[in-house]
Write a structure and sequence with these properties.
The complex is a heterodimer of chains A (about 400) and B (about 325). Helix content of chain A is about 70%, strand content about 0%. Chain A contains 19 helices and 2 strands. A two-stranded antiparallel sheet of chain A has the order 1-2. Chain B has helices at about 1-30, 35-40, 45-55, 65-75, 90-125, 130-145, 145-160, 180-215, 220-225, 230-270, 275-285, 285-315. By secondary structure, chain B is mainly alpha-helical. In chain B, helix 9 (about 220-225) packs across helix 10. Chain B folds into 2 domains: about 1-75, no CATH class; about 90-315, MetI-like fold. The chains are: A mainly alpha (about 400), B mainly alpha (about 325). The interface of A and B includes residues 224, 226, 237, 353 and 363 of A.
């Protein structure tokens, strides 16, 4: 062993470095972490992906429903007219283009001067129109029109769904919704569990008995059955009249409702864990020392107790994210969770199940994403548990 | 022991009572009471009629009074009348309960039969490639969304390779002898049981593995080997029996998961059980059915939890309940 290596071993390693190197040894956990980071960046960049590909998760195209993967279809005539309208409204002068269009006489039937661009856009197939436009004289605005007509051809990598919407971009936005719900629920539940668990563990007595009976009672329930009953309530009845009432009726209502309901029933594991750790920490000398020095209860809990439970808490939160995503998907799948048109993996499956015979991929894809995400969170949780547990640390 | 059971019974009773009230309260928060539905069905209804109907159904009284009335009718043996099925709830409940029981029991049996050997195998071959593959399988089982698995099973085994029926409980409209009926029921059960049991298989495998590893690390295993006992005997009598204790709790607690899972499985496969009844009745605002089906599912789970605690003491005499 040379001097440098010796030095390295003698040096005290910070905790996070030990944990990180332990974590890196768990191969599946590292793969899981990469998958999670990938999904996180997809959900963060969803609007940018939408802008680059020119696909909109809500854009319907009823004449091109259930298109297979790798298909190119023309957008619906309503959307073509809207695109032309947007082009005409951008302030440029298109008289020359309109004159040229009338002179070329592409259409077989007579049309009014102001409608000629609209009629061309809707009456002729986009690829035919592009050919026609190529033989046009170079007038002002022609390139704008060619760009607009070029946008009529939509390429659907994963095909279209029951309303002719692009499946890929809906999956991207579904990722955003599902992961957001999972993260919010897991963190909020950890917070609630931390408070309840530390109150029960630190103060003991009747408070402990009451809180823990409540926790035990909730933990023993068949959660999904309870969630189905609870999710049938009307959010407006609960938060109507409070500062939060702006959520009711907005696009985010069902997302908030989902987070709220899932939070109610996912804090119990954390509370139990925190209470257990506190009971054992409470008896140790450094707490006694802090008490003797006159520290307040809140001070002791925050600076001496909480840092000692953070490690197991982190594991519980990681596993909690996976579970929350699974529950959200299950409720949305039953039509009780995230409401359309907002896409989530669960409600995409809900829509797809009626047509499994005709379009099985619509049902298979969202489920695969749920499986990949949940299994990744479970592996990362498992890896963290191994890495943090001092008994398993090998140096 | 007796005082422990009595104490737990009282606790369970309190939880069920509180839950029934909580649930009753939630149902009143749900949009659309029976009279609202009648109003939307009949536009010619007058406001006096509405008043009269509300008084008739007791909807003009405070929630606590209504809850009390509901509890007293339930306790007198009258479970009410289903609005969607047009039959008394009692008649609806019986066959549904039996169906759910058959489904859950079959799923539990299948998962034990598959998971225990796999878990023991993984524990004995700890650290090998076989252990990793079994672990991977268990993780997949825990993480797989059961509703998606159900749909995939339907696509593969009912549409692409039509081996099993895609939905239902049994073939209707034909007279079958007992043997044929049994075969028919099993054919309809295969896919739901598969999709329901995979998740519990994952959990069981992981618990069996860790319990078995812990049990096999004990000194008495070394003693047994030193005495020259046969390897299978050591595994079964000395290792597995001691690994059984933590497993019993997990098995009994898994009923909770099975019941939760049954809701989804029964709904996807249109299997006529209590789970799908809870879902259908809530979707269709069938208040009486929803309350009773919900209370039955929850009570069943709580009773199984109680059983688990008692069994725990039977399996391990060292545990005291004082």
């Amino acid at each position: 062993m040379d001097e440098k290596q010796k030095q390295k071993y003698l040096e005290a390693q910070p905790m996070w470095k030990i944990v990180a190197s332990q974590f890196a040894e768990h191969r599946m956990a590292v793969v899981g972490l990469i998958v999670i980071l990938f999904f996180l960046s997809i959900s963060a960049f969803a609007p940018i992906i939408s802008a680059i590909t020119g696909l909109d998760p809500d854009e319907q195209n009823v004449f091109n429903r259930y298109q297979p993967a790798f298909s190119t279809v023309a957008t619906s005539s309503i959307n073509r007219e809207l695109a032309v309208e947007r082009m005409l409204a951008n302030g440029k002068d298109y008289t020359a283009l309109i004159d040229a269009a009338i002179a070329q006489n592409v259409l077989e039937y007579p049309t009014t001067r102001e409608d000629v661009l609209y009629d061309m856009a809707t009456a002729v197939a986009p690829e035919v129109l592009l050919d026609e436009l190529a033989s046009f004289p170079q007038v002002e605005g022609l390139n704008d029109f060619i760009a607009v007509v070029g946008g009529f051809q939509k390429f659907h990598l994963l095909g279209t769904d029951e309303l002719g919407r692009d499946v890929l971009i809906r999956l991207v936005y579904g990722t955003r919704v599902s992961i957001t719900v999972g993260l919010m629920v897991a963190f909020a539940a950890a917070f609630i569990g931390l408070i309840i668990g530390s109150l029960a563990g630190y103060y003991g007595g009747y408070l402990d008995a009451t809180l823990m009976r409540l926790t035990d009672a909730l933990i023993s329930l068949p959660i999904l059955v309870v969630l189905i009953v609870v999710s049938a309530i009307d959010l407006g009845n609960i938060i109507g009249g409070t500062p939060l009432s702006f959520i009711v009726g907005s696009d985010y209502e069902s997302i908030f409702k989902m987070v709220f309901i899932l939070c109610l029933f996912s804090w119990m594991q954390v509370a139990r864990l925190v209470r257990g750790s506190i009971l054992s920490i409470k008896e140790q000398e450094f707490i006694m020392a802090a008490k003797t020095l006159g520290a307040r209860d809140s001070m002791i809990i925050l600076t001496h107790v909480v840092p000692n439970v953070i490690a197991p808490l982190l594991v519980a939160v990681t596993l909690g994210i996976g579970n929350s995503i699974l529950f959200e998907a299950a409720l949305s799948f039953l039509g009780l969770g995230i409401q359309p048109p907002t896409p989530s993996w669960g409600n995409m499956l809900f829509n797809a199940q009626e047509m499994v015979q005709h379009a099985p991929m619509l049902a298979i894809l969202p489920g695969l994403l749920i499986l990949a995400t949940v299994i990744s969170f479970n592996f990362v949780g498992d890896g963290l548990q191994d890495a943090i547990d001092p008994k398993s640390i090998r140096r | 022991m007796t005082s422990f059971i009595i104490r737990r019974l009282i606790q369970t009773g309190i939880v069920i009572t509180l839950l029934s009230f909580f649930c009753y309260l939630l149902m009143t928060l749900m949009p659309g009471d029976p009279v609202d539905l009648m109003i939307s069905a009949n536009p010619n209804i007058t406001s006096e009629d509405i008043e009269r109907l509300r008084a008739l159904y007791g909807l003009d009284q405070p929630v606590l009074v209504r809850y009390w009335n509901w509890v007293s009718t339930i306790l007198s043996g009258d479970l009410g009348y289903s609005r969607t099925y047009r039959v008394p709830v009692q008649e609806l409940m019986g066959p549904r309960l039996i169906n759910t029981f058959i489904l859950s029991a079959a799923a539990l049996l299948v998962s034990i039969l598959i998971a225990l050997p796999l878990g023991i195998l993984a524990a004995l071959k700890k650290g090998t490639r076989l252990d990793y593959s079994i672990n991977m399988f268990a993780f997949t089982g825990i993480s797989i969304p059961s509703f998606w698995l159900a749909i995939v099973l339907i696509i593969v085994f009912a549409i692409w390779i039509p081996l099993f029926p895609a939905s239902g409980t049994r073939t209707v409209g034909v007279d079958l002898s007992f043997g044929e009926l049994l075969f028919d029921r099993i054919r309809y059960l295969v896919l739901p049981v598969l999709s329901l049991s995979l998740m519990s298989i994952g959990t069981f495998v992981r618990f069996t593995r860790s319990a078995m590893i812990e049990a096999m690390a004990n000194d008495y295993i070394r003693t047994a080997r030193a005495k020259g006992l046969s390897w299978p005997r050591i595994i079964v009598i000395h290792g597995f029996r001691n690994a059984l204790i933590p497993l019993i709790t997990i098995l009994a607690l898994s009923f909770s998961g099975l019941f939760s899972g049954a809701i989804i499985t029964e709904t996807v496969f249109s299997y006529q059980g209590v789970g799908s009844l809870v879902y259908e009745s809530i979707i269709s605002n069938d208040f009486n059915v929803a309350m009773v089906a919900f209370m039955i599912s929850v009570s069943m789970v709580l009773i199984f939890n109680l059983l688990a605690d008692i069994l725990y003491g039977v399996a391990d005499p060292r545990i005291s309940y004082s």
